[in-house]
Amino acid sequence: MAAAQGRLSDGAGGMGEGKDTEEDEGHTGSTAPPAFRAAVDALRGARLRPQVEVEPTPAPQRLAPFAYAVEAAVVDGDQDLADGRLVLLHDPAGHDAWHGTFRLVTLVRAELEPEMAADPLLPEVCWAWLTGALQARGLVYGEPSGTVTRASSHYFGGLSARPAASQIEIRASWTPREGRTGVPDTAAHLASWCDLLAQVAGLPPAAPGDASVVTLPQRRDPQAR
Fold first, then answer.
1. What b/e string do you get for 183-217 counting C-beta neighbours within 10 Å, with b at 16 or more?
2. Is residue 154 over pLDDT 90?
3. Alpha-carbon distances of 74 from 12, 77, 96, 190, 200, rounded to whole Å
4. How many CB atoms lie within 10 A of CB 116?
């Protein structure tokens, strides 16, 4: 699976290049708060559409006291149509910028067809795909923040035979609404994020029941700073 490259930061509720470049899964187990453990368990047992391959990945350190991350790719044969990373952050003391104790941070990337890359409304459309994916599953969230970046590559000299390529990158974060137990519906947020990945990859909307039970591979316990 192609992992999304780049560092996530969420200092003020937004996305950008963070100073922290170290990653480690750590061993926290029983030291992690029950709400965080429940949120991670929900991620591991989420029902996801089968076209999206999801697995745990080391979570960035120092963004929050507790963090858990997954990476995903939409794969067609040997080609990755889109990939990304979703990070769940938790600060039991709360965070002023989050207006909550949990935060979801994401990076999504995909190659673009030339016609789509030339659309001047593409950044607005991609942001609408993100918010629409959350709203389609009835999720309540707050403090959304992010950027949509469009990049083009042109090849010269010894690489001139390669066709020009364009890529879209969505960096975003939002605060999921916490339930009565203080735990957000992280499984639904993960499912909506996979819907976003599929849409960016050009897949049609999932049909009713078009999902499979996915249990994320168990590597280590949720990581803490």
1. bbbbbbbbbbbbbbbbbbbebeebeeeebeebebe
2. no
3. 30, 10, 35, 14, 9
4. 15
CA–CA distance, 148 with 131 (Å, rounded to integer): 13
Give 167-198 pLDDT, tens digit per residue. 889 999 999 999 888 899 999 999 999 999 99
- Beta-bridge partner residues of 102: 90
Mention every residue, 6+ apart, whose C-beta is less than 8 A from residue 160. none
Residue 146, both tokens: 């992010």
Assess whether pLDDT exceeds 50 at residue 221.
Answer: no
Q: Dump the DSSP string for 141-190.
A: EEEEEEEEEEEEE---GGGTTSPPEEEEEEEEEEEEPB-TTS-B-HHHHH
Give yes or no for residue 6 having a pLDDT over 60.
Answer: no
Nearest to 195 by CA among 47, 44, 38, 40: 47
- How far does the chain reach from its first CA to its final CA, in angstroms? 27
Position 214 pLDDT exceeds 90: no
Position 202 scores a pLDDT of 84
Which residue is listed with tokens 């999932």?
206
Which alpha helices (H) appear in the chain, and where do they start and end? 34-44, 114-117, 122-136, 186-201
